[in-house]
Write a structure and sequence with these properties.
With 250 residues, the protein is an alpha/beta fold. The protein has one domain: Decaprenyl diphosphate synthase-like (Undecaprenyl pyrophosphate synthetase), CATH 3.40.1180. The protein has 8 helices and 6 strands, in the order βααβαβαβααββαα. Strand 3, helix 4 and strand 4 form a beta-alpha-beta unit. Helix 2 runs parallel beside helix 3 and helix 3 runs parallel beside helix 4. The chain binds farnesyl diphosphate.
Length: 250
């Protein structure tokens, strides 16, 4: 009998935080002679499948790069359609997230979102504030460089830390992700090998997994494959392999 791939996942070595660059919606649509917006609409199915899949696998944090600070420069029709899809997702899924104990969180320059989207986003975050099983973070109007600049501005303007007291730990407290664990695994779909201004600070020691699968085709089994690949890796954080293995037996 063919064993389910999922049964090979070691629950003791799950990544605490998986972040995903959802890419390839446009190419998926083009292949099917559809418009780009149909690709984004299809991508929503993958969002639902991956959130459910992550929860079922026992992952505690998942972050999806849904709209970058640079995406505002796309054609107006596409930006509007993406905002509308996001609004609909939040309206439709709000109750389901809460029923499934999924807390919604968001990072990015959220004040730049259209007012109606911002409102439903805030309401959904409030509605799911008590949820604990999985935290779903949407990166919206998000840019890694923007995040770092925003952190520097906050530090400079509130004057609470003198420059010689700034270190990696207290600097992280000024990032949008201050309440999230470091990402263990970053998945990028559609085969592109770049970071696209995503979590530039946070990805320092994250394991990267790139798959050729286009985002609208991505399902739980693809997430499982990424996790199995992650579980085979040796994370060294700048140490030697011998040091890491010695540490693991202690
Ligand atoms: C990248 O594909 C994808 C985006 C810019 C948007 C992703 C958005 C969704 C999946 C829908 C909304 C999400 C949520 C969480 C409600 P691309 O358009 O750059 O594809 P291409 O590189 O093939 O053109």
């Amino acid at each position: 009998m063919k064993e389910k791939l999922e049964s090979y996942v070691d629950p003791k070595k799950l990544p605490a935080h998986v972040v995903i660059i959802m890419d390839g919606n446009g190419r998926w649509a083009k292949k099917k002679n559809l418009d780009r917006i149909s690709g984004h609409r299809e991508g929503m199915k993958s969002v639902r499948a991956v959130v459910k899949g992550a929860k079922d696998l026992g992952i505690k944090h998942i972050t999806l790069y849904a709209f970058s600070a640079q995406n505002w420069s796309r054609p107006k029709g596409e930006v509007n359609a993406l905002m509308e899809l996001l609004r609909q997702y939040l309206l439709k899924e709000g109750d389901k997230l809460s029923e499934n104990d999924v807390r919604l969180n968001a990072i990015g320059r959220l004040h730049e979102l259209p007012e109606d989207v911002h409102k439903v986003l805030t309401q959904t975050m409030e509605k799911t504030r008590h949820c604990r099983d999985l935290t779903l973070t949407l990166a919206l109007s998000y840019g890694g460089r923007e995040e770092i600049v925003d952190a520097v501005k906050k530090i400079a303007s509130n004057g609470k830390i003198s420059p010689n007291k700034i270190n990696q730990s207290n600097f992280s407290d000024y990032l949008y992700t201050k309440d999230l664990p470091e990402p263990d695994l970053m998945i990028r779909t559609s085969g592109e090998m770049r970071l696209s201004n995503f979590m530039l600070w946070q990805l320092a020691y994250t394991e990267i997994y790139v798959t050729k699968t286009l985002w609208p085709n991505f399902r739980k089994r693809h997430l499982v494959k990424a996790i199995l690949n992650y579980q085979k890796r040796e994370r060294r954080f700048g140490l030697t392999g011998e040091q890491v293995r010695a540490r693991d037996v202690i």
